[in-house]
Amino acid sequence: CPCPLPSGDTALSRLVRRLLSARRSLDLCLFSFSCPQLARAVQLLHRRGVRVRLVTDAQYMGLHGSQIGRLRHAGIQVRHDQHSGYMHHKFAIVDRRMLITGSLNWTTQAIQSNRENVLVVEDAVYVKAFQDEFERIWEEYNPANYSFF
Amino acid sequence: CPCPLPSGDTALSRLVRRLLSARRSLDLCLFSFSCPQLARAVQLLHRRGVRVRLVTDAQYMGLHGSQIGRLRHAGIQVRHDQHSGYMHHKFAIVDRRMLITGSLNWTTQAIQSNRENVLVVEDAVYVKAFQDEFERIWEEYNPANYSFF
Q1: Helix axes B11-20, B36-48, angle to 10 degrees
Q2: What is the dihedral angle through the alpha carbons of B6, B7, B8, B14, rounded to the nearest 10 degrees?
Q3: Number of domains in chain B
Q4: B85 and A112: CB-CB below 8 Å?
Q5: In A, which residues are within 8 Å of B110 by CB distance?
Q6: Backbone phi, then psi, for A95, in 5-degree steps?
Q7: Does position A35 have pLDDT exceeding 80, yes or no?
Q8: Could you give the residue ranges of the DSSP H alpha helices within chain B?
Q9: Reported ipTM
Q10: What is the pTM of this model?
Q11: If we measure between CA atoms, which residue out of A124, A96, A118, A95 comes closest to residue A105?
Q12: Which residues of A are catalytically annotated?
């Protein structure tokens, strides 16, 4: 496989391990998603039966290297905005109890070259605020609500 | 003034109020800074004698609408990276005790048009991690360490 899951104690491998701890659900709200290792971890969870939902930005989902098409092809539910502004969040919620958020877009460029931060928070007050935002966006971006004129 | 401080109970006015609560120091680590209202709040703190330090991204600081030149002109200390990767953080630390961080770049586009998040955290564990990162970057981007060959 050209993109093995990362090993060792890098920031990326720690992020992947947090994601792989999911047992029931993984809610992803990601402006940009081009990192193949992270996409592979998400696919693995989907195959294990974890319920994966992904919200992303319409303008970035089609860019070169985007993993969104691959994830959709694997059967993962993806929804996107239909606005000119960006869906600029970059967070994940594992099992509705662990929030992973920060400045990091899930791109190879960001992981390899940028100065970034990722917070892992289990405090219910913060998790709930982001879970509520996720559910709002998930409903708002329901394809049943799209308008094409 | 063309850019009054925001009033009312918007997300922007709440962010400005948090910043204006600074009494001793404001450490800013911002990928992109073009929002005039936020720049005005930072200048106000500087004039009040609060110690303001600003770290930013070299490639974005010169973009149209950037407030970095204006802040430097006002006498605020600014340092920037000299790498091809982005200094992609977007956080502020007020009085070394309150961390403000999230997906939000300090741009008018982000504030007006995007879906974004901003966390305000006073838990010392999180604040210290970001303060340590700020001090590392502040030293690393010290102009005395620049190389020009």
Answers
A1: 20
A2: 60
A3: 1
A4: yes
A5: 86, 88
A6: 50, 30
A7: yes
A8: 11-20, 36-48, 68-73, 108-113, 124-140
A9: 0.90
A10: 0.92
A11: A118
A12: 88, 90, 95
